[in-house]
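Schema walk-through. Below, the input block comes first and the output block second. Nothing else is stored per chain. Lengths vary across the set, and this one has 98 residues.
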Amino acid sequence: MARQLRRSTAGNAAVAQPSRKAPSKVAQRPALPKLTSQSKGIGKFLGEVRSELRKVVWPTRTEARNLTVLVVGVSVVVGIVLGFVDYAFSELFRLLLG
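--- output ---
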């Protein structure tokens, strides 16, 4: 959108260009208490897991419901198709062998 705006106003110097947002500052995690050498690895791991989980963009309730319905629907359709193919092959073999 900004590129299109720049192209359409390339000859017009009076039009101000849209400015970019300044990057937001990430909150720093408080330091963990002093731990033994073995528990440092576990504490570091759990701290990194927590940090990564904060970055996840979780779906809304509506998105989760819609995606769940989609997965169940596709599973039912695939099950019906595979059931039909199984029935067709079993009838074909029954005709060939019977």
